């Protein structure tokens, strides 16, 4: 009895199994493309994310910078990102955020939630929140100088951000 038919059947079976690498090719390749896949603009993260991880079953994520990142934005807001930030991501919502602070008057407050509502972004520090137009977040600021860097090259991003279906 020849073993060839068994070998052929085994090869066909293995060929039709899903590849363990299929999820990697279907998933976003950067933290910025991950944001876009959940309907967020890339500009809520400054340039310089060196790695990220995501538990797709819970939405728990971590984004890693080489070092902490601080910069000022027009309107006298100062932001500080620790070298590791974390939280939970779902379509149009970032919750339980840690590692991001904003200076309001003389106080540093933790940004704990970001919600996208149409063309508006709502940033919550727990006791209060502020809304900004999404157009302010289409490009990522640079650590140290925000959007005021002399060597900053204008980058354009697709403004038709993809939506994630909740099916």
TrEMBL record:
Alphabetized UniProt keyword annotations: Signal
Cleaved signal peptide residues: 1-22
Listed InterPro entries: At5g01610-like, DUF538
Pfam family, one: DUF538
Protein known as: DUF538 domain-containing protein
Organism: Brassica campestris (Field mustard)
